[in-house]
Amino acid sequence: MILYTMVPNDLVFPTDGSEFSGQMMINYQGVPLLVQQEENKYRIIRVMSSDPAHYLNDQICPGEYLNN
Q1: Is the full-model pTM beyond 0.90?
Q2: pLDDT tens for residues 1-35?
Q3: Which of 39, 52, 44 is nearest to 24 (CA)?
Q4: Would you kindly state where each structural domain of the chain is located, as residue ranges?
Q5: DSSP letters along 9-65, please?
Q6: 37, 46 in Cβ contact below 8 A?
Q7: How far from the centroid of its chain's Cα atoms is residue 9's Cα?
Q8: Residue 49 near residue 32, CB atoms below 8 Å
């Protein structure tokens, strides 16, 4: 892959893992989710399921909050 950019390599390919801080995998109602904890609730970052029916559930879409 060739990437033509003026952005420094450290920003394009971070190595410290700071962009993933506070994120974890959970299983919510049988659906694997990548979430980030914010105060006393979790914000859904990504649905990690391979089942297309899980993506149609509007309660577990990215950006929604799950109470702790």
Answers
A1: no
A2: 788 899 888 888 877 665 667 889 999 999 999 99
A3: 44
A4: 17-67
A5: HHHHS--S-GGGTTEEEEEETTEEEEEEEETTEEEEEEE--S-GGGGG-GGGSTT-E
A6: no
A7: 23
A8: yes
